[in-house]
Amino acid sequence: MGHHIWWLNHHAKLPVNGTGGRHYSLAKSLQKHGYKVTIVNGTFDHIVGSFDKHNTEAEINHFPVLRIYEGVDFCSIPTPAYKGNASIGRVKNMLAFYFGAMKYLRGKTGIPKPDLIIGSVVHPFAAYAGYRLSKYYNVPFVYEVRDLWPRTLVELGRISSKHPFVILLDKLDGFLANKAKLIITTAPLMKNHYKERFGIPEEKCLWITNGTSFTKNTPTPMRRIGEDDVIEVGYTGTIGLANGIKEFLEELINVPKDIVKRFNFTFVGPGPLKEALAHYAEENALPVVFKDSVPKDQVWSLLQEFDMFLVILLKSDLYKSGLSMNKMADYHAASRPIIMIGTAAENPVLISESGYVTGQMGNLSNLLKKILNDSNEQYELKSLYGRKYALEEYDWDKLALKLKNRLDSIF
Questions:
Q1: What is the pLDDT of residues 320-343, one digit of tens each?
Q2: First-residue to last-residue Cα distance in the chain
Q3: Which of 127, 156, 321, 385 has its CB surrounded by the most CB atoms within 10 Å?
């Protein structure tokens, strides 16, 4: 094997439920180019809200857990359970990951020493642990930014920009960006943030979007839709405040009955607003269904059941950097037209000509009417454009090669 990378991402997903997340997929593809990757994550999964099912809580809380999946090593640092994204418990969990990484990953670790360390945000403490370890082992440090912290927290209205914690995170972001040999971003224009905020040259940034393993699957052709057929529209993902589903349902009430009756919208996923929105849809006789998530290995066949997919973006400055939504990569790969409400820089639906886009929720009636007026040939063309775009832009092997070429120049 060639170079060995440690990739610190507190919330990296284990590939036990079918496919893994971004880091596992990139690590698996990097292996083909002679790189060995060890992913360092925490034992407590904040999305599922549980401990990794392969170990008891007692085992997990006393030592790191080492496992291998298809040649990719995982080292899980003991982190405590918590409830609620904005809780003290979450901050304790973050700090436990940082101090745990410092405690367990220096000296005798049971894993081969790194030649390069990537520190990945969601929270900067994980990335800072990566930087500190890179100094300890005297190897290059790479900073991966998947969310612009603290900007994301401020944008979502969770916290004031004057809060001492926000000022600390902002300073840490600038420090890590300056110290890194390379900044990996998930959205195409995040480089502008580092250029404008910290004066970092944009060539120091490398855009590696979130890909999908579905480029390896063969989609079933889209069915032909007759004049009286109901178009089945699917949405997969979280059903929460930031996802715009409440606003979508409120606008759907205003769409003329003769248009609405030709659509059925299915929302698949977990989330805090699910019950309330299901009740609202029922009360207002909307053609809307809410379903529970399916295991990852069933997502592909679920996507094939729909005629089109829905993406909603609430107005936010965050989208000035572009998009890096996992669902977008999956939707393109599944080869169906995408209905998008919202605006974003470098919008992949517009670039690929794979769907129907409006910037305003108030234009929903016109958008749905336009879809009904289009032909099956138009639908098919958009589907094919989406699939072509996925094969070019979202394939993990291609994304890993792009990363490998830049990392080669750092060693």
A1: 888 888 899 999 999 999 999 999
A2: 15
A3: 127
